[in-house]
Amino acid sequence: MQAAALIARQLGAEEHRIVRFDLRTFGGSALTSDIAVPKDRAGFEMAGSIPITYVPARNTIFLSFALAYAEVVQAASIFIGVNAIDYSGYPDCRPEFIAAYEAMANLATKAGVEGTTRLKIETPLIRMTKADIVKQAVALGVDLKLTLSCYDPLDSGRPCGRCDACILRRKGFEEAGVVDPLTVP
Question: What is the value of pTM for the model shown?
Fold first, then answer.
């Protein structure tokens, strides 16, 4: 959360809010329960099925909070960083999910029903490879030291280097020809 606040400040965000809720209340994932995070998996294993790191309905929940806020401030767009190319097979990162959520959002809001605003869910990363994302981040001047992809960080806060997210991140940085600042001692 500190990194998110720093990035928001660095990018000149007009406002940065933190909404606290705990998905551990529901569990069902290695990220929200006492279930081991898979390590050292090959690419074909990651693509084989929906992994135990999938958090049930996480992006639906995130989008629902954003939708409520967007309606209050009369925003026409909600941005979410889902990716459907180099990802772990999460169902709520697919274009079909985003399209369905956008359709629902326009049926479920006052602005949608009254026809005053057509809400758009913006997914700028959805069809980018991890290498493309790294290159774009560099081009935009994002401080990559503030980004963390790891599902099971070490007590020091450093990435484990072995979970699916770390493996995909490493591949993206390597393919982009960029040194990952989190792997530099």
Answer: 0.89
